[in-house]
Fold:
Amino acid sequence: MWTLMEEHLESIGIGAGILGTGGGGNPYVGQLRARQAMRENGAVEVLSPAEVPADARVICIGAIGAPTVGVEKIRDYQSYYALRALESFLGTTATALITNEIGGSSSVEVVVPASIAKLPIVDADGMGRAFPEIQMKTFFTYGIPCTPMALADEKGNTAIISQAVNARWVERLARSLTVQMGSVACYAVAPMSAHQVRETAVPHTLSLARDLGQAVQRARNLHENITEAILGVCGGKVLFQGKISDVERRTTEGFSRGKVSIGGTGEYQGHQMTIEFQNENLIALVDERVVCVVPDLICLTDDRGEPMTTERLRYGFRVTVFGFPSPELWTTAEGLAVVGPKAFGYNLDYTPLEL
Amino acid sequence: MWTLMEEHLESIGIGAGILGTGGGGNPYVGQLRARQAMRENGAVEVLSPAEVPADARVICIGAIGAPTVGVEKIRDYQSYYALRALESFLGTTATALITNEIGGSSSVEVVVPASIAKLPIVDADGMGRAFPEIQMKTFFTYGIPCTPMALADEKGNTAIISQAVNARWVERLARSLTVQMGSVACYAVAPMSAHQVRETAVPHTLSLARDLGQAVQRARNLHENITEAILGVCGGKVLFQGKISDVERRTTEGFSRGKVSIGGTGEYQGHQMTIEFQNENLIALVDERVVCVVPDLICLTDDRGEPMTTERLRYGFRVTVFGFPSPELWTTAEGLAVVGPKAFGYNLDYTPLEL
Structure:
């Protein structure tokens, strides 16, 4: 157990921003909201999965929508409204919360309701990174019910998807509500037991995000090599370095979709990387050869180790592109069926990142 | 009190089809489903508003979507699923049901859950006709809460709009869910007391639909004048007679929208009527002069008195166009704000139909 204090938010923002593979929402915007909630309501306890009491009811909190909108739209405590709407639907209360993804602002969205409702959060998540669609969670992939799910906006609308054919239908219904709610909403989803969390969540990812962020901060302060600091925490490797030469992006159907082209510099001079994204980076090619593909992580930072989320991508930025291996829960047949390259429309088998 | 038997369904289909002002869904399709439910579960009692017990919980049942889709898409007992989802959300059960609108298939949709759940229905509705949008109900206009609302499709998805800024937001969220659910869904909405039903519903409209249908059937059988039979029950007047010369129609955003042109015949020879619709007929012009506008009823029949709903409109059909005065609950300032010409984007004040 550790206590998540205001001072951790910046580290987690950096770490989760990197692990968010370009998505999960702008980390800075998420931090501001979490900081405000903690100032008003206090710090939040973090339990490792092993520490979650056997009789716990762990509710998953997330944000849904287009990061391009999330960075502009004012949100208040809508994830807390979603939690309360779900609890009232269930006629029961949560005893702990868990984030749906470790990525960008989403990883600290859970801090808002946790702080207000004085609930601990579990040091784990349902992705081990960020993914664009609601059904793309280890929880649902390994048998946790995807309903009921409560959604809330900042205006005073709440809706509950009480029953759905499958998790893809939850995504479909939730996405259409989200578009109406202004392309960003927050949600709370059916409670899990401690056993279910231990079986289906990607463990220790909040600590990982914090450690990664702290390593970057330390390297910055000590003028050490930031790239090595990142690799030291996450494993993985550098896929490319260069300057953004083009960004195509559109905010459509509740997503940011597009691709970014990067002209190589240094040892990558003369080569070109292209990365395609749907909120998150999905596939990276160097000179049209695939070098990394979902569910492996494709993560961009600037030269200060600051995460480059997809909505921040601009012509001229210098970036380092990292590849990190996927959590093991995603590289099974069940996992790849949900988040493998084919699930995103690529006619491609998953080949693990060469390390 | 009277008992709604299988034999009433055809009369109600004709009557509600006419009163539905082109919308409310294809009456024949609705009848088939109601007939099936009644064969399996028995007839349904109908209470006049005065007969509803003081402690009743009356839940409103409706269908939402595009009639063009409703006529093709197979539905099962999804209005019953919506009722059960709402009851389970509320932790209480209905003691009576009421239809949201008297029009087309919608007016007998309520028979399905009433028959299955053995509940009486109230002889009244929330429109006194049909309207395309959910907020367009006398209930909501006169202060009945518009949430929670449960929606269900035939696939096994249910959702609940648990809280909304206002009834327009309910429409917006429900419509987007409906599009995902396949452009037709059924809903159940917050219970009313007997007093609330008596204050806010348009009374006796189910009997009116039955009587109107029976008058048409009688005139057909006795080879009497069908037009006069219709006017004898509803009041109002004939606005036009002629042959459909053009239909523009598109199914978009969960609605059928378009317009129909009618070349006059008989005493209307040399004139042209144009009717614009959004599921329901909204405005009728003769030679570009407005002759009838919402909330007054613009109702088309063929020469057998069979209702011409907007999805049946075709080139070459001979039609009679009736104008009937609006229920009084709609011609107040509050009513016109919700369903007057301006609510549909016409820069026009409401002028009552000249009789």
The interface with chain A takes residues 85, 88-89, 91, 150, 155-165, 169, 172-173, 176-177, 179-181 of chain B (CB under 8 Å).
